[in-house]
TrEMBL record:
Residues 574-586 have a biased composition (Basic residues). InterPro entries: AAA+_ATPase (IPR003593), AAA_lid_BCS1 (IPR057495), ATPase_AAA_core (IPR003959), ATPase_AAA_CS (IPR003960), BCS1_N (IPR014851), Mitochondrial_chaperone_BCS1 (IPR050747), P-loop_NTPase (IPR027417). SUPFAM superfamilies: P-loop containing nucleoside triphosphate hydrolases. Residues 53-254 form the BCS1 N-terminal domain. The keyword Ligase does not apply. It comes from Emericellopsis cladophorae. It is found in: Mitochondrion inner membrane. It holds the Pfam family AAA. Residues 355-382, 453-477, 549-626 are annotated as: Disordered. GO terms for molecular function: ATP binding; ATP hydrolysis activity. Residues 356-368, 549-573 have a biased composition (Basic and acidic residues). Gene3D superfamilies: P-loop containing nucleotide triphosphate hydrolases. This is Mitochondrial chaperone BCS1-B-like protein.
């Protein structure tokens, strides 16, 4: 008789082994857990397998059906907007989101010191957000942080979908990776946000976008937005980058002849008036206006331009033409991307390449005395990428400059500029800035020390005398309004007295500064060293004049030495070329290679022996041997 102990096919044991094998595939380690449960707890998990399978398949089915349903709802019953990091609206939305409750209370959040997009073109180099403080009680500790000069922390919801309410209606805020632009961007730029609302109308989302923009603009209202031409840091083209939002500089703080200032303001106001554009168009005159501000460094040219932009609430786009980036292509590209109404400030238009002639740099002393080449000649100069005068003229005359922009050019050397660049039509008004005369000096002094409301009045009665009671001290503590009023009156009186005293002192100070010798920036520098003590500033004037004169003389001597070196180098080069030419003529063949040896000799001798050696090497050069 044959006994077969092996379990027959289809026996319960075999079935359970097969089930385990299948379950192990989906839930690794299930058979082990099951045998442990059987051995130690006496629970047979086999009995629960069908139930478990039902649960697992139901959950799979639910997740599939729900995502399909959500997809259907999303595409047919919802509206949404995608916002990427490479547009300024990203910054606006993130700033708005950070102020919303759902963001503040979110348990999954991202902490930032700067909410702005990291996309290079959107980046703000100066975190002007720090200036704007939330009026929220729960932010007390934040204020403590800012008081310690720490950057304020902002919280925004982290990756994923978050529900929030806007105008009592539910919306979804989704923050995710930007899958379409993964390759080209940095990690922090690979992000996008999607805001969705229920319903087929996107009006609610548009309202939200408008609100975010309004909030953002309101923050910038009292500011002058400054953009600078810069590269993307990846060797790419030049573009305008927002570099900061400065509190608008009041026009009155720029010290300049009042009549000239008023003329300038009236002229710009007239140009920007809506009817003027039509007037220009009707007469076929290009709608543009150019201003040239010239004068020594530190006399207020840039300050006036900024104040003007702030006064007319325009953005200012600053480009320094002395930057190596300022090539013809780059500058024309920058002009093409300017907005309709703005101030364009072109700094240093006397920079190399834009003066009388591009060859100017290599011209010798003798040549320098010859009259400057006309602008037309410049057109013949081969295009080397650097901005040429003709290139700049083309850009200024181009369509990109005729869209209601206020073009301001600044220079320290008006005498170096080509007439073509500053002819009427390109420059419609010229404003000269000079070094400070006594009137300006006194104004700078008053601007520095006149106390503003709520400010501590500067000490004006000797170094050891106590400061008059400051306006802010104790005012907060006065609960009684009558007392507070009295205190305010006393403060106002103290301020008026201090202001009168400052006016007297300003005349004393101005009398000590020689007229037309120092720039307003230099004088401001002196005053800033004694910003709380006008008397100390007056005492320091004499020694400051002596040391500043000494510094200036040393600097001038250094510059003269460098100039002389450059002149000698140019002369040597000229002689070398002349000699090569003479040799070529004499031999009637190309002697450039043999010539270079002797040139090197000459150069080495010159460097070693100075003038004497030079005269020996080139006896016909005209230098004496003594
Ligand atoms: N006329 C002025 N009125 C008020 N402040 C002035 C004046 N001139 C110069 N300053 C002060 O000096 C500093 C430098 O001025 P600013 O940059 O405007 O000079 P600039 O003429 O543009 O110089 P640069 O030619 O070197 O660019 C600023 O801080 C500004 O406040």
């Amino acid at each position: 008789m044959e006994v077969n102990d092996a379990p027959s096919q289809g026996s319960p044991n075999t079935t359970s082994q097969q089930q385990f094998a299948v379950l192990d595939m989906f839930i690794p380690g299930f058979s082990l857990v099951s045998s442990l449960a059987q051995a130690y707890l006496g629970i047979d998990l086999n009995l629960y397998i069908p139930m478990l399978m039902v649960l697992v398949s139901t959950s799979f089915a639910w997740s599939y059906i729900s995502s399909m349903l959500y997809g259907l709802i999303e595409s047919h019953l919802m509206s949404s907007v995608r916002i990427r990091t490479d547009d300024e609206i990203f910054n606006m939305i993130m700033a708005w989101v950070a102020t919303q409750n759902f963001s503040r209370k979110s348990r999954r959040f991202i902490a930032n010191t700067n909410l702005n997009s990291r996309a290079w073109s959107m980046w703000r180099f100066f975190n002007d957000e720090d200036e704007d403080e939330d009026e929220d009680e729960e932010q007390d500790w934040r204020k403590k942080e800012t008081s310690k000069n720490k950057k304020q922390l902002r919280y925004t919801p982290s990756y994923g979908t978050h529900l929030f309410f806007f105008r009592h209606r539910p919306l979804l805020f989704e923050r995710c990776e930007n899958r379409e632009q993964m390759g080209s961007l940095m990690i922090s730029e690979k992000e996008e946000i999607i805001i969705s609302c229920f319903g087929r109308s996107a009006d609610l989302i548009k309202e939200l976008l408008h609100e975010a923009r309004e909030q953002h603009m309101a923050k910038d209202e009292q500011k002058t937005l400054i953009y600078r031409g810069g590269s993307d840091g990846q060797g790419g083209d030049l573009t305008w980058k927002r570099c900061m939002a400065r509190s608008t500089r009041p026009f009155s703080t720029v010290i300049l002849n009042e009549k000239v200032k008023q003329e300038l303001v009236d002229d710009v106001a007239d140009y920007l008036a809506p009817k003027t554009r039509k007037w220009y168009a009707n007469r076929g005159i290009p709608y543009r206006r150019g201003y040239l501000l010239h004068g020594p460094p530190g006399t207020g040219k840039s300050s006036l331009s900024l104040a003007l932009a702030g006064y007319f609430r325009m953005k200012i786009y600053i480009l320094s033409l002395s930057s190596p980036m300022a090539t013809e292509d780059n500058v024309s590209q920058l002009f093409a991307s300017l907005p309709m109404r703005c101030v364009v400030l072109l700094e240093d238009i006397d920079s190399a390449g834009l003066t009388h002639t591009r060859e100017g740099e290599s011209r010798s002393k003798d040549d320098a005395a010859s009259p400057p080449a006309p602008a037309a000649e410049n057109k013949a100069v081969p295009h080397t990428g650097r901005l040429s005068l003709s290139g700049l003229l083309n850009i200024l005359d181009g369509v990109a400059s005729q869209e209601g922009r206020v073009l301001i050019m600044t220079t320290n050397h008006i005498e170096k500029l080509d007439k073509a660049l500053i002819r009427p039509g390109r420059v419609d008004m010229t404003v000269e800035f000079g070094r400070a005369d006594p009137g300006m000096t006194a104004s700078i002094f008053r601007a520095m020390y006149t106390p503003f409301e709520g400010e501590e009045t500067p000490s004006t009665s000797g170094p050891n005398s106590p400061a008059p009671s400051p306006a802010k001290k104790g005012t907060k503590a006065l609960k009684d309004t009558a007392l507070a009023e009295k205190q305010k009156l006393r403060d106002d009186e103290a301020r008026n007295r201090a202001t009168e005293r400052i006016v007297d002192l300003s005349h004393q100070f101005a009398a000590k500064i020689p007229s037309g010798e120092f720039s307003p920036a230099e004088i401001q520098g002196l005053l800033l060293r004694h910003k709380r003590s006008p008397l100390a500033a007056i005492d320091a004037v004499d020694s400051w004049i002596t040391s500043t004169r000494k510094d200036k003389m040393e600097r001038e001597a250094r510059e003269a030495e460098e100039k002389e070196k450059a002149r000698k180098k140019a002369e040597r080069e000229k002689r070398r070329k002349a000699k090569q030419k003479a040799k070529k003529k004499a031999k009637g063949e190309d002697v450039s290679s043999s010539g270079s040896g002797s040139d090197l000799e000459i150069e080495a001798q010159e460097q070693a022996g100075g003038k004497d050696t030079r005269s020996k090497a080139t006896p016909d050069s005209g230098y004496g041997t003594s």
